TrEMBL record, chain A:
Belongs to the TFIIE alpha subunit family. Residues 422-478 are annotated as: Disordered. GO terms for biological process: transcription initiation at RNA polymerase II promoter. InterPro entries: TFE, TFIIE/TFIIEa_HTH, TFIIE_asu, TFIIEa/SarR/Rpc3_HTH_dom, WH_DNA-bd_sf, Znf_RING/FYVE/PHD. This is HTH TFE/IIEalpha-type domain-containing protein. Residues 220-247 form a coiled coil. The keyword Transcription applies. Residues 441-450 have a biased composition (Polar residues).
TrEMBL record, chain B:
It comes from Platanthera zijinensis. GO terms for cellular component: P-body; RNA polymerase II, core complex. This is DNA-directed RNA polymerase subunit. It comes from the Eukaryota. Keywords: DNA-directed RNA polymerase, Nucleus, Transcription. Signal peptide: none annotated. DNA-dependent RNA polymerase which catalyzes the transcription of DNA into RNA using the four ribonucleoside triphosphates as substrates. Belongs to the eukaryotic RPB7/RPC8 RNA polymerase subunit family.
Amino acid sequence: MSSFEPFNRLVRLAARAFYDDITMKGDNQPKTGRGDNRGMAVVVLDALTRRQWVREEDLAKALKLHSKQLRRTLRFFEEEKLVTREHRKETAKGVKIYNAAIAATADGQQPVKEGDEKNKIHTHSYCCLDYAQIYDVVRYRLHRMKKKLKDELDSRNTIQQYICPNCGKRYSAFDALQLVSMIDEYFHCENCNGELIAESDKFAVEEMGDGDDNARRRRREKLRDMLQKMEEQLKPLMTQLARVKDLAVPEFGGLLAWEARVQATARVIGDSNASDSKSSLGQGYGGTPMPFLGETRVEVALPGMDVKEEDTGLDTKSASMKVLPPWMIKKGMVLTKEQRGEVKAGIETAQSLYTTDEKKPGAEKEEGKNIQDEYLKAYYAALVKRQEEQEAASRKMQEEGETYKASAAEFSNGIGELTDRQVGMKSKRENDENDNVYWEDSTSTVSGNVGETFKLADLNAQPEASGDDEEDIDWEEG
Amino acid sequence: MFFHIFLERNMLLHPRHFGPHLRDKLIAKLMKDIEGTCSGRHGFVVAITGVEDIGKGLIREGTGFVTFPVKYKCVVFRPFKGEILEAVVTMVNKMGFFAEAGPVQIFVSNHLIPDDMEFQSGDVPNYTTSDGSVKIQKESEVRLKIIGTRVDATEIFCIGTIKDDFLGVINDPGAAS
Ligand SMILES: [Zn+2]
């Protein structure tokens, strides 16, 4: 596990830094209400950090997304080199192999559906994160961003302009050939043969138009500002990059290899105490459960371990990650709304039910009730099994909360004109539209604890948030 | 960057060439006319590598000249913004230096030369680092990056920079000889 978590954190940070604002535009967007699905990219990436190879249909189901929508997102990430995908034609048998592999990683988690057991051949797509490539891609992206700003600041790549002090005629470096004089080492005016002087930091024509000095100075200031903001706001990401630098990159290998390995591992160990001994197999695959499922116990220890590891490793920086640095808190204060996003994925679902009731007590209530019934069933089924895992999961949520908060605070007034926006709100809307009962198993089951967790993670937790939550839980149990 | 492309041109041929060697004459004239010229769209024509097709000639009334549409294949060279080129320095002055990469003239102004290189006037004007380890003078070979191009009917002029990673002198004529 320890080999995965730093990289997963990297993915989560990068997702919030770069893909927070991405809209997946379909070719023909039928309903206007669905047009805005920003934030979905982040949700998908987050989901992938909790999985290994996953069949895209299953992922879509788990995320309550339309499979087309998910595929579009994944295709985008494939182009961005974050995700590896594999497609294969398979019969029901092939599906079984995959399901067996899934079952091996976490027994019983994937409800193996027997419905479509025909000999039809379907093309199934699988995807997983490509950690090695993600590391490189993120580093390259940062490098390019920085270089572009710096180049422009140093007025590199700009065409020098010259001006004649006598007659005021302007020349650019393109005229250099005509301006050279044989007598001395200067350029001379074609009109009056005066000595030309270079105009200091004149920006290239294409970028500036013929802006006056003020515009130029403003632009320089803006550039410097942007550069500084970037350094500051992407710091968590860069710290994380530095942290994973010397770690072995976890790799799943190809889909087939992965399946074979997973099954082999499962066979050797036996199902009962898989979680105990898996980690001893080394980090290749063994230490990589679906974090929220099979090996939750291993993960419980994680935050503590993490701290230790960080403390010994990069103590100066790790301190800023665990104990909130002042600047983070300060920004957080202003942006309490922002912070309600990810952590509350669980609450959100509960809350959305609550709010629909509240808003339209009449007509909507019936529908809401159905949803609630469904939710109840799912909830109870999951509740028994997960109860002892809640503690663990809530720990994880808290950690994610911190992650998110860091990035939310960072990017709320982001480099470009990132609009202020709540990821949580988006996902909520998504929920409403799709009549989703719960966002995701792991998060919804934790909802009982989230109020608490939330407070721990966030000093600015709003009282009504937890209030809603408790009320909802009461209702569910009664 | 070099490209190997097909181009077409209407060739005007004097009637005195009409005879058994018409085709050879036409190709010779094509080479003489085209090679070394420059067009904004395609860049410099470096060499004609083959004649693909010569169409039917059309006699011009009154003069007796005939135009043939000729399709030929040629190597062209066109510099692009952002391209890295190796060039030979042709002239150094206080404002910067000029260099040539084949037919292309490139000017590197002094603000695009690294700040630690200073201009030294004298018999052989040059730009030198403070410790004297790197020197740019006439005949030096430099690797530079194109940051702007201006294309005329007959020439392409470029602005380059050596103020970036891995750019600058790649051989030093003073040290070699
Ligand atoms: Zn003048």
